[in-house]
Amino acid sequence: MSCFICERIEMIKNETNLYFVKELETGYVVIGDFQYFYGRTIFLCKEHVTELHYLESTFKQKHLEEMALVQEAVAKAFKAEKMNIEMLGNADSHVHWHLFPRQQGDLQPYASKGPVWWVPLEVMEGEAARPTNEKLAEMVETLRKTLDEVLESE
Prior knowledge:
This protein is α+β, with helices and mostly antiparallel strands. The protein is 36% helix and 17% strand. Residues 7-109 form the HIT domain. It comes from Lactococcus allomyrinae.
C-alpha cells in the first residue's frame, strides 16, 4: 500500500518537489499544494507512523518542538493574525501537520468566524487555490528565509 506523504518525501529526496522548503531533524517543511489560506504549510514527519503516540519519546518531543518553530516561522513569514494547526491523518495516515495562517475575514462568504474546514473543500483545494510556479517559488524562499531566522534565534 502506497503512502502519499512518503511519496512526497521521496520527491524531496530526489529534488523534484517544488513545494519543499527545508529539512529539519524530524521532518520536512513544504508549502501546501493549495493556498486558499495564503501561507498554508505542511510539516511532514520523517517517521512513517499513523499516530503521534507511536513515535519514540525523544523523537516525539523534538518533532513537537520543531513543529512549533515551523508554526512561528509561518506566522511571521505570512503575517498571520492567528494560526490554526491540525494533525488529522484521515486521508493520509502518516503523521503530518497542517499549518494555516489566518486573517480577519478569511472565511467570507462562508462564515464570519470558524475553522478552515467551513470553506467548501472544492473551493479550498480547487485549482483556483493552486499557486503559480512563480508564486510558489516566492513563498518557498520567503518561508525558508524566515525559518532560518527563527532557527538561528533559538
